[in-house]
Design a protein that fits this description.
iron; single chain; 487 residues; hydrogen peroxide; 15% strand; metal-binding; Catalase HpII,  Chain A, domain 1; binds NADPH dihydro-nicotinamide-adenine-dinucleotide phosphate; ten-stranded antiparallel sheet
Length: 487
Amino acid sequence: MPQQDDRNSRLTTTAGAPVADNQNSLTAGDRGPVLLQDWQLIEKLAHQNRERIPERVVHAKGWGAHGMLRITGDISHLTCAKVLQQGTETPMIARFSTVAGEMGAADHERDVRGFALKFYTEEGNWDLVGNNTPVFFVRDPIKFPDFIHTQKRHPRTNLRSATAMWDFWSLSPESLHQVTILFSDRGLPVSPMHMNGYGSHTYSLWNDDGDRVWIKFHFKTSQGHRHYTNAEAEEVMGRTREGYQEALFGAIEEGNYPRWIVQVQVMTEAQAGELPFNPFDVTKVWPHADFPPIEIGVLELNRNPDNYFAEIEQLAFSPSNVVRGIGHSPDRMLQGRIFAYADAHRYRLGTHYEALPVNRPRCPMHHYHRDGAMRFFGDMPNADAYYEPNSFGGPVEDRSFAEPPLQIEGPASRFDHRDGNDDFSQPRALFLLFDDGQKARLFANIAAAMSGVPDAIAERQIELFRRVHPDFGAGVCAALDALDPQF
Ligand code: NDP
């Protein structure tokens, strides 16, 4: 395709043949009809029909840029991951997104934001697929499709349904923590640059001695937290639906590169056994007082993509992508996502999605996966080595990359994940951090979002807020009353 600085060069078909006329179809006489023989016309129409791929079911609307991770702290005693060694710089790419809206949704909607990072490390791609909040609505992946249905359109009305959202949340007390964050100021950042990122899940680090610790990753915005109120966001959306793209793309074009300070929280395996709550429960944070954040580096975004579709829409993250020295944890939601993310991309992009330029590792890769749609990359140097084991010098495993064994115990069963779980203390700790203004906005945001919800569902949710803190329940009641005195 001709580039901006190349516009006088010759137009060709996709097969490279120069095009003699890009203005007129091939017709029988000057009044038509068009001849089927006009393969240039057919090629153009056929390509246009195929310009869309399935959008992501969740996180469809996104914005992204290239950048660099620089490690400044020394955690070599915790991990052998090359990407996390002091002084290492690793090229990376980030994609931010809203969760519920479709690809054309307005940017400034109240929603959780995706904060997904792909690091092109020397030992393979490492993807950290987080959010701008440290917790999530559900802790068991079997609830995820139900939860997402409540965020999407009603099957009959084709409208978003506040009733469905609050019905699900009021029946799922584990959602309280995330709901409190969503309706607080941080639920509506002014741009991707003005929010934190959190790996959210518990991951692990391991070193050459085979010692493992549990770990949480945090990315603290250097631009400062900035948020819109609902009223401000409505005003902005009246002017532009693309405010995040404009802000992020514009800042990077102008050389104002956004940065985040990278922190980790570390928990030993022994500490995990002594905690009063499950450290692998993604509806919970690790209190800073017990697990102080340690600064280990800085993330900077400094290059806009040249082609949004190729580099951001085709960008494919999966928590399954970890590298030596970084591992997973028993977090159930993480395990669900290890399957679901890669599966989404196989459906959305195709079997060989990881060979697309933006997803391709920057290090050599040698695997035995073979054919399938869009197999556009060549074979390994020795074509006879197309299975394993073989006698023809094909690639072999390297046991030095093995993760230390993880002890697991207990009977396989469907344990009730709500049984004995304290879903109230951590939202309470957050609620008590808010000043009066933040609390008033929290109450008003919740009341506005509950508009039209049947009383029984609203009452059930308010009872959950009361259990977080009596002032929380009372504040939401008063805000609902102010909107509708009949409530
Ligand atoms: P701390 O007081 O040590 O930490 C409070 C944290 O809350 C800070 O990380 C701060 O993030 C964040 N915070 C401050 N204001 C808001 C807000 N309006 N909305 C969302 N987050 C906010 O206490 P704890 O570690 O004991 O945590 C108390 C509560 O804070 C938790 O229950 C949780 O809800 C929330 N929180 C905790 C985090 C953690 O990893 N421990 C992370 C984020 C939130 P920042 O430093 O970026 O301003």
